[in-house]
Each structure stands twice: as structure tokens, then as C-alpha cells.
Amino acid sequence: MLRWGKIERGSTISVSCCSAHPVTQAHLSEVVASAGTTFTPAHHAKKAPVSETADTLVVGTISTGNPAAPTAEAMAISGGKIIGIGSLADLEGLTNASTTTVKPEGIVIPGLIEPHMHMWTSLLNLTWTDVSKEACDTFDDVVATIKQTAAKTPDGQWVLGKLFDPSLYPGEPDLTRTILDQVSPNNPVMVMNASMHYLYVNSPAMVAAGVTDQTMDPPGGTFGRADGKLTGIIGEAGAMMVFAGKLPKPTQADIASGITTILNECARQGVTSLREAATGTLAGVSELAMLHQLNGAQRLPVRMSTAQFAMMAGKTPDEVAATWKEAGVTPFSGDEMVRADAWKVVTDGSNQGRSGYFFQPYLGEDNGGHANWTPEGLRGAITPGLRDGWQIMVHTNGDAAVEFALTAMEDLLPGFGTNDLRHRFEHVSFTTDDQLTRMAKAGISPSFLMNHVFYWGAAFRDTILGPERANRLDRVASAYAAGLRPSLHSDYNVSKVHPLLSARTAVLRQLQADGSVLNPAECATPEQALTAITTGAAWQIHADDRGSLEVGKRADYAVVSEDPWTSDAAGWDKITVNETYIDGTLAFSA
Ligand SMILES: [Zn+2]
């Protein structure tokens, strides 16, 4: 049995959740690029003006998310904005005969905010079969699920799986060629590891890719072998590309429908605004052009805030910054549905993939990962963003990565004035007290990938990092205590977009693996956790007009089965969403 963490790493190509994988990038980039680079404002952005009389009166049980006035029985909306919220009597003067009264079936809550997800990279494998731990409780389930997909696939066509994570199963089992040949002898099978650093393929896939026992390893990758025979375990981009290059290419219609599918799934979890955390990784500025085109044709189901990625193939960060600027993509450009808001830099890799950067080695290994940059390189990637006035978002996973990026920001920020751009560190998975204090002083807020605790907490504790470090995972309570304004995110498709599950985990810190609690001292209060998926997250994406239902804010709301502000956090993940509204008009219906 090969332990995946021990497979020889064949290249220096560093990929993480926050960057497009070169293997699958080629499949979408051409098609998206055909969208061009011109931005057309959406016509539906022209709504009726806000007046003193409500066009819509929402009557029912309303949980506002505003601690000063947590409940209401009615909300008056005009031109997409809230002009009154409170008791029916309070709002009497705001309605007339032309006001439409609606009575939603459920509790009205503020639309939830997803402050860090990846739409473009997730599109790449949207239709592949999910063999994540969440979908497949045991390794046998993984094998059975692939077998079921193969049974439904005509002979000769590819069977594709995604999000397989051996680190979550006892003994870290691999999907070998032998296993996959038994699963499907007549179809090429390819399953991607959740870290996106490995593929698992069977013999027909080897034939399709023209790879034999005699084929040399390509630059930047490894065809896994045992006793000279291919094992089916394909490591790193250089080798993975050989297989991925054989997959059928999507059409522009496929991509458009994929975007709609992903955004509707976000809306299904009550999300009305999200931050796409690495825009431009596949097709540069064309990605924004495509979003504006789609939104122009039919309003998107979720508002999108984009973080422009500091890296494009063959360009320095300075050249990337110039590319965005030349296309008219400047801070806060766009419209109320698709707006460019941030500059994204990635410091290290993934902790569960053992490529996060730590002060101390991983358990059983002699190194603690590394940064993707030299200190000068990181400063060179952040500086164009600061110079052009962007909010900076820096991916930092291990404690040494937090230190590396924090030192850079502490050095650079004084040179760029005192603008409140609400700079952010992403994941900030493992921190020291000192780092949280310094982040508060530097004005850098954390966004936590909270599902790290739920899904990988036990693996961090038992096999990857050990209990001391695992206790320092996602320190929401300490972040609040340090005066920070944290948010919670999914990093979709690292985990699914489900803000209420993230908030539940922030309160309970319960591990999916054994139900135990990972460091109760870091449990957030229910109010803190809900703030981190509403007003706190809205603040982090520069959307102060969202996140709670208050006069002057946008009428972005969800109609749900139960009020999270008054119900037990243990049940939050079971709350269902009937409808979402953007600017008071229906955006999604279950
Ligand atoms: Zn990310």
C-alpha cells in the first residue's frame, strides 16, 4: 500500500485551492477567452428609484441580524432598498394602494455572505462524480460510487471522479490501477485527489493517454511505478496533463450552464453575495467579461465580488496589474451584481496536502512545507495591488506562512497611507497569539476556512500536525478577542458552500470523524459565528449595504425553515432555504 504523502513529488509546480490547475486549465481557458474583454453594464441594473413609499411590503417573521433590533414583523422595500423595518404599525406611513404585500412561507433572514469561494476552478470538474469523504464515508464507498458511475457510462467514455482524499480514511489507501481496473475494465477512469496534486487512473486510461510501463516520466511529474509496473498513481501537473489532455472539451454553453449551476447551489444555501477568490486564473480579464455578459442576459442568482489573481501565465505581477488596469478593471469597478474588489496573492499550499508552510515539520516528516515565494517575490506580488488601491487578500495556511505574509504586509503597508481597504488573510489556519495581535494592529482581518475543523480536524490532530498545533486551527474566539472582524468561508470546492454549516462548526468545533470537540476555548458564540457569515463577511467584501436587514441597506434576504438567531447551533446545517431575494426581487426558489 502506497502512502500518498510519501509519493515522490516530481516538480516544483506549486498549486493550491487558490490557483487554477494547469492540467484542467486548458479545457476552459480558450472557451472563456472567446467572451472577449469588453464589459457591458447590465440593463436590469436600472431599477425604479428609491422613494418614500414602499413598492413591496414583506410581512411575516423577520430576523434582522441587527443586534439593536433583532426581530421585525414587516419590512418596507422601495427600489430594492429597505426603507422601513419594524412592527406593522411602524410602517403604516410607508405604504399606499400600489404597495404589494407579500407573506413569505418561512422566516426572513439577511442574505448570507460567502467571502471566499472558487467558481472558475470548480467549473473544471463540476460534472465529475463526487468521491469526497462527505459523499463517501468509507474507502469501500469510494470504490462503489465510481463503480456505479461506470455502470451508467457507455463503454469507452471517461469515468471521472473528484475530491478523493485518502488522508481521511484509515491507512491512507490509494485508488490503484488494479482497483480501478476491477471497477471498470471497459472505460478509462480518472479520479482526482482533493489536493489536486494526484490523479488515479486505470489501464484503459493508460491506453488512451499512450502511457506504458516503458514511458519515461515527463518533466514536472511522475507516473507512479512499483517493480517497473505502472501503479495508476499519477503525481503532479507534468504527468497529470498527459491524461487530462485527453478529456473532451466543454462548449461555451456548458460553461455558462456550469456557472448558473454553481451560483444556484450557493443561493440554495441562502447566499446572496459571494467573493470569487481567484478571478483571472483561467482566462484573465475574459472571465469578468463573461460574468458581465451572463449577468446582462439574465441577472445572476448571486452578487459577485471578484478578487483579481496576481498571477497570469507568463506575466510578472506588475504586468498582471497593468493587464487588469488596461481592461478597466480597477478597485470597485463593475456594477452592483459583478464588482472587482480585491487583489489576490497565495503564500503557501494546503495543510491537508502537506504543502502548507509551518515552523515545525509535519508529523513523521523532516520538513514543514515551504513558501511559494522568496520574501522579495512576495513583496513584489503584493506591491502592485497596494499601489493600485486594491484590498489585498493573501492566502496563508501554515503558521510560518502567516508569519511570512504578515512580515511583508507590516513592511509594505506604511508606504501606502492609511486607507481602510480591509486587507485580509485567507484561511489563516494556524496562528499564534502574537500573530493575531499584530494582524489587528496592521488592519488585516482573517477569513477562516471553518470546515477545516469539521472535515480535517481529526487528521490534523492524529496524522498530519499533532494535537498542540491542531488546537490552534481556526481560532475564531481568539480572533474576536484580539479585536479582529473574522469571516467564515468554504473555499469551494475544497468544501461545499454552506455558511450555516461553517457557523455551526465555529460554535461547536465538533469533528466529523469522532464527534469530539477540537479545543473548546476557541468555540465562537452563536452571535459571533452568525456575524462572521453576515455583517462581518459583508464588511470584508466591502458590502456594508448588506449582511443585515436595516433601513438604507439592500433588500437582500433569504426565506428559511428556521431562525438561526433563535435556534440551537447544532441544527443550523439542517435549515433549508425556500427562496432568496436580491434587491427585493426573487433570485432563487427551491
Ligand atoms: Zn482559496
* Unique bound compounds: zinc ion
Helicity level: 25-40%
Output the structural class. alpha/beta
Shape: globular
List keywords for this structure.
globular, 8-stranded mixed beta sheet, 590 residues, 9-stranded mixed beta sheet, 23 strands, alpha/beta
Describe it:
- The protein is an alpha/beta fold and 590 residues long.
- The protein has a domain at 4-37 and 121-244: Diaminopimelate Epimerase, Chain A, domain 1, CATH 3.10.310.70.
- The chain is built from 18 helices and 23 strands.
- Helix 10 (375-387) crosses helix 11 (399-412) and helix 11 packs parallel to helix 12 (433-442).
- It is globular and about 80 Å long.
- The protein starts with 21 loop residues before the first helix and ends with a strand.
- Residues 17-18, 116, 118, 277, 491 line the site of zinc ion.
- The site of zinc ion has 6 residues, from loops.
